[in-house]
Amino acid sequence: MAAFSLKVNADVHTVDVDPETPLLYVLSDELHLRGPKFGCGLAQCGACTVLVQGEVVRSCVMPVGAVKQREVTTLEGLGTAENPHAIQQAFIDEGAAQCGFCLSGVILTTKVLLDKTPKASDEQIREALSSVLCRCFTHTRMMRAIKRYQARGHENSVLDGHTSERDVRE
Predict the structure, then answer these.
(1) Looking at residues 130-142, what average pLDDT do you find?
(2) Residue 124: what pLDDT?
(3) Which of 42, 89, 132, 164 is most exposed, with the fewest beta carbons within 10 Å of its own?
(4) How many C-alpha atoms does 105 have within 13 Å on its Cβ side?
């Protein structure tokens, strides 16, 4: 066991766990976050997706000891129920979630893609999301939500979840 200081969703947490413990277990069991989910445990489905320093990471295979002082953002870290991030609002507006199991993977992967490539084509979006397994078949609604977010000029949104595109416009 070792004490680790983790910065998750802009808050610093100290946890005492084995350094080889998957980050997912620390996020769910120690910090009680429910955005990233256990799916396959092999980094194949994307249900456990988080951002580490703004990059997509499968938390089920990332040892917490490898994270160290790097910023971790989960789906909860993008926005709140009262003030959702623009991409979360687009998914709400389009009714693009059914069971919600894949949302961490879909939303966080899309956000990183569009932050890097704001005018990504449909093909580029589909390619980026090809590693995220969704069994509900809401792909059409998800794509509409992604296109809605993309059309709104998402570059005005802030990753830390404290300012949404709506806040910037108002």
Answers:
(1) 89
(2) 98
(3) 42
(4) 25
